[in-house]
Amino acid sequence: MDSLFSLAGKTAVITGCATGIGQGLAVGLAKAGADIIALDIADLEDTRQKVTGLGRVCGCYHVDLADSHSIDTAWNALLSDFKTVDILFNNAGMQYRASAFEYPEAMFDKIVAVNLKAAYLLSQKAARHFQSRGCPGKIINTASLFTTFGGVEVSGYTCTKHGIMGMTKALSNELAPYGICVNAIAPGYIQTELTRAIWSDPERRGPMDARIPLGRWGTPADFEGIAVFLASSASDYITGVMIPVDGGYTVR
Fold first, then answer.
1. What does the buried/exposed string (b/e) look like for 160-199 if buried means 16 or more CB atoms within 10 Å of the residue's CB?
2. Active site residue 189
3. What is the pTM of this model?
4. With CB atoms 3.0 to 4.6 Å apart as the test, which of 51, 90, 99, 244 could cross-link to 30 if both were Cys?
């Protein structure tokens, strides 16, 4: 049974893994035996130390996911260094809150570029790589609660996360004949530095806590298991789906 979940000998590219959920994904895959290729615009040293502390290799690449040239440069560099990739985890994303009446066009364009376009471009590159090797591969995308809900004052973000699920379904159909599985996870309310303003404020946090059946916010460590499952042979007959990691929030 352990072999079903083993990632020994595998290499995983993960975007947006300097902190938070992405770092949890990197740690989980490393625990299962994968080497990690970390892509982020932020400092990746903390993630590198956590991964190498588990005895795995961690290659770190600075990339601006809003810039397709930066994506091309990072992809070419990591393939030159690592030669092969088995798993792509499109996790990086950004958020911006504003009324739909006032949402800035420039910010909308940037959110689409980072959250959706970059994920598509990297998925395209990974799919070509998997196909050229004649080997199966795994592409996993980070969606959101707002892939299901509309939200308030997050219209740009919500558009991209619905797009992520559409992309997941479309690519799963086209890539399945090549043994490439494409799935998504949907994080709920997760306790990270990015959400500190909410979870550290009892008044704002209260209504959210009341709706989570498991009675707590998630942590980056809660993503280790789902990352391994979707990246490993244990999920070889699963494609085109989104799995919520939300403590039951969406079914309350």
1. bbbbbbebbeebbeebeeeebbbbbbbbbbbbbeeeeeeb
2. no
3. 0.96
4. 51
